[in-house]
Amino acid sequence: MPTAKKLEQVAELTELIGRAQIAIATSYQGTSVAEQVALRQVLREAGAEMKVVKNTLLRIAAKDAGLEQFADLADGPTAVVFGYDEPVGPSRALTTYLREHDTSKVEIRQAIVDGLLVDAAYIRDLATVPSREELLSRIAGGLVGKIRELMMLLDGTAREFVGLIEARAVQLESEGEAS
């Protein structure tokens, strides 16, 4: 018979799974409390959170949320990083932290990104992608540059046309005076 505490944990996990854009399964055994606290702080700044979960509770919560693929993350001692806004931020924060702190005890196993099960290599690649805001600003900058180019081209063409008309007017005046 499930205890009230376990039911509460399943309800919380179900809610987290339902909101998550990305869920990254990691190992955590052998890390100190200080390392876990530091990692959680970095993830919080990136709009994510890390939860140490029991595999059976994760499987039940995944089933309750209607997202059975989340149950595939449950393998061995598991900590799951949940990201809610965009997948790039949490994956970048996690991979950067692991690279800078050389924590061989924490490793990315696999993840769910927008409902698809992916491997650790995908998460490392995703961490190198610019954020959504950065991509949008690059696109906007490119569009503004092209619009400015077009504006200068049209302005130059109009200026040349005006010069051509003025030159023809001068030519006609000089022909009129000569005759």
Describe the protein.
The protein has 179 residues and is an alpha+beta fold. It has 2 domains: 4-129, Alpha-Beta Plaits (2-Layer Sandwich), CATH 3.30.70.1730; 131-179. It contains 6 helices and 5 strands, in the order H-E-H-E-H-E-H-E-E-H-H. The chain has a 5-stranded antiparallel beta sheet with strand order 2-3-1-4-5, with helices on both faces.
Mind sketching the topology for me?
Layout: H1 4-19, E1 22-26, H2 33-45, E2 48-53, H3 55-65, E3 78-83, H4 88-101, E4 108-113, E5 116-119, H5 120-126, H6 132-178
Antiparallel strand pairs: 1-3, 1-4, 2-3, 4-5
Helix pairs in contact: 1-3
- What is the typical, i.e. mean, pLDDT? 85
Low-pLDDT ranges? none
Euclidean distance between termini CA atoms: 114 Å
Largest sheet: 5 strands, antiparallel
> What oligomeric state do these chains adopt?
single chain
Q: Could you say how many structural domains there are in total?
A: 2
Q: What percent strand?
A: 15-25%
CATH class of the largest domain reads Alpha Beta
CATH superfamily of the largest domain: Ribosomal protein L10, N-terminal RNA-binding domain
Number of helices: 6
List the strand order in the largest sheet.
2-3-1-4-5
The CATH architecture classification of the largest domain is: 2-Layer Sandwich
* Gross morphology: rod-shaped
Q: Give the helix level as a range of percent.
A: 55-70%
Order of helices and strands: HEHEHEHEEHH
A few lines on this structure:
With 179 residues, the chain is of the alpha+beta class.
